[in-house]
Write a sequence for this structure.
């Protein structure tokens, strides 16, 4: 690379970095010399200490702001996740309640088929039997065994030979 080719690639990369305060050693040395001339050698240590404390406070403040922003971003992500979980729980709850209602409806239909329909059929059979059976006032034919009649005369029966 010659002199007319433009700036060095490292210099371009160094100045295009996202760092807010990109101060090198030569800039710090220049600031120190100006401060020594303007402030003087007696007050320079006290001013440097104060500047260091202020710089430290500024760094802590920036770190606190970054932490707050990160917490807010994290809280927002948690709220989104919570909303997603709530919506999925609601959909699951709706599907379960729908399945339960369908299941209870099917069970009630089966109970109706198992209990009520046979009950109706029995009632219909009872009504049909009552119509076909003779009424209770009509005499019922009975088998007569003549158990309470006096014994008949045995003279007509052949005599038995009983050995004496």
């Amino acid at each position: 690379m010659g002199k007319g080719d433009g700036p060095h690639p490292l210099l371009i990369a160094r100045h295009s970095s996202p760092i807010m305060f990109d101060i090198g050693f030569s800039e710090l040395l220049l600031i120190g010399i100006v401060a020594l001339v303007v402030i003087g050698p007696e007050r320079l240590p006290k001013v440097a200490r104060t500047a260091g404390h202020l710089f430290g406070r500024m760094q802590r403040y920036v770190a606190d702001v970054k932490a707050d922003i990160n917490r807010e971003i994290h809280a927002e992500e948690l709220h989104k996740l919570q909303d997603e979980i709530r919506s999925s729980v609601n959909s699951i709850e709706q599907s379960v309640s729908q399945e339960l209602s369908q299941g209870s409806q099917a069970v009630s239909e089966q109970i109706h088929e198992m209990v009520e329909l046979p009950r109706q059929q029995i009632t219909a059979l009872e009504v049909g039997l009552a119509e076909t059976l003779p009424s209770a006032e009509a005499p019922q034919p009975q088998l007569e065994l003549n158990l309470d009649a006096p014994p008949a005369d045995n003279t007509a029966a052949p005599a038995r030979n009983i050995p004496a």
Observations:
- The CA atoms of residues 85 and 105 lie 30 Å apart.
- Confidence is low (pLDDT under 50) at residues 10-18.
- The chain has three helices and no strands.
- Helices lie at 9-15, 25-39, 44-132.
